[in-house]
Design brief:
about 625 residues, Rossmann fold, eleven-stranded mixed sheet, five-stranded parallel sheet, about 20% strand, TauD/TfdA-like, TauD-like_sf, 2-oxoglutarate-dependent dioxygenase activity, oxidoreductase
Length: about 625
Amino acid sequence: MLEINNKENLVEEISFILLNQLIAQYEANIHGLVKLKNQVRDFVANDKPVRLLLPAFPCKTNNLDKVICHLPDMGEYLVLRKFVQTIRDIQAIYEPGIIFHIFSDYHTFSDYISVDLKHHYDFSDKLRLMVERMNCSEYLKIVNFEHYPEFDDLEDFQYFKGLKDKYGKPGYEENFDKLKLKDNKMNTTYLGLKKFMSHDQKHVLAQLSYKQRRLRLSEIAKGMMVQGKALDNFLNDKFSDCIRLSIHQHPMVGKKYSLYLFDEQAFKTPWHTAVLFDAAQGKYVVDMKHNHLDRDGVIIPVEYDNRTWCYIRLTAKTPEAEQKLRQVSAVLYREKFGLMLVNKQEDCPVSLFEHKELKYLIKEFGTVVLRGFDRFEAPQALESWYAERGALVPWKFGNTHIISPVDGHQGKPSSSADSQEALPMHWDLLCPPPYMNVSQDLYQYEDFTPDEFVLYCHRNEPVNAETDGINVTSDTALAALTIHGREREQLRQTKIRYSTKESYFGGDSKVYPLLMTCPWTGQNTIRWWEVWDDRYHAGALQPNYSEIASSEHYTDMKALEDRLIEVCMNPNVSIKHQFESGDLVLLNNHTTVHGRTAFNGYREMWRIQLQPQSINSPWQPHNLVEYDKVS
């Protein structure tokens, strides 16, 4: 009985994840819910992976009014990342896990969409690369007719006709016009396809006469419906046990389960749209490219992988500010991490940016680098600007930590930070100095951990700019997404005790789970301070130590540390940045960890941390302790 109850609980939990994260529940009724749970129940009863099928992701439309180019971009990435999140969440609770099949339907409609075969393959290959970089290729599979023996006797350009010949519905094409007159739903679909394709293919159709366009649109709409029937028959044959998903609008009655691919509750697809991040609202807007370019505000194309990837929208305070912001260029280090905004104009201060918009950019992209803007000549000027965002974390030496290889400056003891040594990967203020009186008996992580902080490069004069003082930052939210759901939960249930040299011998230490939910973004994020002891880094000025405080899954700290290095230092989730004098870098302190390589030469950085918003922050007036003055 206990096993039956456990399995039924799994059915409920898996169904909830699917409904909460994927299925649109459009015009749902009880039969749709019962059918979904019954399908999940069959998988669970037989200890088999849950199997999903989504025919989609054919190629980008040829209409460049709608999309940026023929390759996948931020739109496809956001959707695939959403799918991977669902996969990880089901893996976390159900050991057999899940297999999510995306069946590319390019060949089904290739004769009607006027997209080159090479563009389709380029598109599919880039999609698979995105999935591979999230370490999910085993569970999120992008397939096509070429993967099935029924089509081995055909060349790829013959798949279109081969599908109809092998799987077409007898009599459907021949009697199409008569059937359409007797079936209102069929006629509505036909008219809807004509309307959609008249816009989608308008540049191709423009060379035809009005009469020819009407005939071609009728041919396209009819042909797509005929091919759609054949595709359904093929998919029913090959994926009969799968939960069938759809990008189209269907009532949830137990046949096909419609998806909202984006957070917006609308049936939009990334291969017919472009994505814009609206920094004023802190959210993505999915629309046709020409609509984005016609929006109010400052629209900046964002480059990634040597091409336009998406757009961001900024708000200008004045017409002069708008003119300057329009000249700023933007580039991403990774698909959704590490945004750099570059200015090459005179008299262009960072105060051109709205603080609220910078905050949303940091929250979304993890790190934001402002390069080429007017210099801050003194720490007080940086403090004055940054304090407009909120209260600053006070240290004995003030709000600004001047990081430079000058022993004893600001009245501070010697430390690795104020040296030319490499620094371990860490997040800021994870082990506050004892004088801050931050006890974990009194304060939670979100009470004393800054949401963000700023690093300003006042001077950087490395001997070798290729290797000296490289800033390494890892996207720990993406790192959490790249690991299997079961391992993710094992890390969540494992706590590590971190100690610095001065507190290690009988002093204070801090304990954190290796994985937690980010209090700012709601994402899973890894919290890791890289071990920096004599075994790994002999002679370091300020060693730090890690030990397993509690875990049901790990006993060997060295093996665990090796695994964390493998996950968090993977080039797919980490970036390297060489500072230039004047660079200003804003970091999301919850979804990143950062460190640096050793350097020769001179570098001076200014660091300021923003106080967390918690009512129980140690720096709230009712908690604040007066620091002893530094001599």
